[in-house]
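Continuing the series of single-chain predictions for the mutant panel. This is the parent chain; the variants come on the following pages.
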Amino acid sequence: MTHRILYSSGRIVFIQLILVIGFCALLGRLIYLQIYQDNFLDDQVFSRLDSQYTLLAPRGKILDRNDRVLAMDVKGYSVGIDLKKFKYQKDSIILLSQVLDKDPSDLTSVLIKKSSGFIEIRRNINHETKERLENKKIPGIYFRENLRRSYPERNISSHIVGLTDIDRKGIQGVELVFQNELKGEKGSFVGIKGSKNIKLEGNRIEAIPGKDIKLTIDLNIQSIAYHELNKKIKETEAEAGSIIVIEPSSGDILGLVNHPSFDPTDRRNLKDMGKLRNRATVDVFEPGSVMKPLAMSAIIESGKIDISEKVETSPGWIEFEGFKTSDFRDYGILNLSQIISLSSNVGMVKLCENQDIQHLINSYKKFGIGRYPTSIMIPAREGFLPHESSFTLRDKVSSCYGYGLTLSALQIAQAYSVFANGGNFVELNLFKDHSFGEGHKNRVIKTETNKIIVEMLIETVNTIGGTASRARLKDYIVAGKTGTAKETLEEDTTYTSSFAGFVPAKEPEYLAVIVLHGLSGEDYSGGRVSAPLFSDIMKQILLLKDLKI
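Parent structure:
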């Protein structure tokens, strides 16, 4: 009995001793962690983080006036390589290069810089490319979902819409001008993982999508202008060209295209600055005879001539201050309207001889000549208008038939919109929901003067011998003027062909300016190249209008 009691007491003591030792060990461990590893708890907390990443903000869309998409964000993927799993085999490198359109040597040089971990080799691939890579079953390939910029119309609207860089930041065109509005605000997410792999909800800040930007562009008209311009470029072998179509009453730009153009989805061509340049707004040139109606309106408004006045243009050429200019042929005696319709340089020189220089300059400025077109926001140039202090007598007379000053296609459209708007200046606009520039109408020439000029432009298109007869339309009266300007670079001579006109002549709904650069050969004049192109384009635009498309 005594023996059993002693045995039980010993067992109890032993158990107690074990508990004391365990407690002391635990206490010692806690003290050690507290004193020597005071970051332990912090480490444990951060070890529970499952993921932490940025939530990309969908970039705003760029839309035409009818809400058709010109630029938008779509789901994309980044492709990378897990270097531990990837095998540096020639076949794998070649397969990757073929699918991603990369040079095998460039891809190899990227991979050998890092021996382990993960490396991104291409960003913003589409779903089809992802599937092609997956089907190749290359070890170590992984994908990460992201957003990429898509341009459904590609070359057709690229000079207006512009493009973004690889991070979807605007670098040209509307994408650049409205970068802050389009970009939105990024969000974030931090996910937390609990014990036994139980995932807990993390902290999420939602991204704020960017704002949509609506343009005045009509994609139907834009497409017509683009395809017809490219057809004419191929036919004439011109070096470049631009077309602008506007709605005169509102100043809305309905179409703006250039050749050459570029595909914003194909970055291989983005190094060619000639393709990237928006020629319609930044290329300036001597306009030639499209300038004559502007000069004629200034001459009429000067009060120094009578509207019934006639001018002797024989023998078909004239020399002024050592500079000779000539007409296509000897036209003899011409009235003012004939000087415009037959495009007589001699007639314009004689009319301008007695004009006040200051009056001419002020008149040109009212049409927007020499002024930076601030209203459209995208990059543009003001052109060249000599300062009055350096405006010589030769400058004065040559300006009246389109030499000695420079304009862009955009400025010609702006100037001719004055004639289409009854003599009022209505600033051109590219953005449907935004207004830039002065935004108000200014009277440039008197109503009566404008009526006279419009009748001259109608005669230029619709009378026998008029230089713009090829711009005629079957069921509509067209008003317009051709231009042909010689460009000499060293020993090479080429021509710029242009036409500016509107339809219907008395109540204009559409105005278009057409310019082709670098023409040579037999067909280079505005009457033979640009005027018929105007007719081809307007036939289709007016058909769309009738069909209400």
